[in-house]
Amino acid sequence: MAQASQSDITLFFIDFKRVAQDKFIFVGRKVNLDCISRLGITIKGAKNIIFGLTYRDYISGPDKDRDRKMGNVWVFGTLVDKTEVYLKLSDNFKCNIAKCISFHEANYRCTYPYKAN
Predict the structure, then answer these.
(1) pTM of structure
(2) Residue 116: helix, strand or coil by DSSP?
């Protein structure tokens, strides 16, 4: 899929943050929970990190969510205490739920198309 524009990414975050104010789900996969534990943060802390993301943290997406029929996933990365964290966020806001699917150490070096801008 084509790279999203800076404005598309910003619009995604506006919607995500609006919905997440009321209903935020942090998928409790072991890899996600282990990561926040190693980083010494809570799910609330992870949410705050997500809320601090910008288009500069964008890696890829939106791509069809392969586990759900509706919605897309957006991929981001950020440094948390010198650890590169890989995040996947869902844009399926039909049920007014903002979801963090992945929040774990990056398995490979991430490429950020807007980091230099």
Answers:
(1) 0.92
(2) coil
- Residue 98: exposure state from Cβ atoms within 10 A (0-12, 13-18, ≥19): buried
* 61, two tokens: 């997406």
> DSSP string covering 18-72, please?
HHHTT-EEE---HHHHHHHHHHT--HHHHHHHHHT--GGGEEEEEEE-SSSSS-E
Per-residue model confidence as pLDDT tens digits over 44-56: 999 999 999 999 9
What are the structural domains of the chain? 6-105 (3.30.2310.40)
With tokens 């799910």, the residue in question is 43
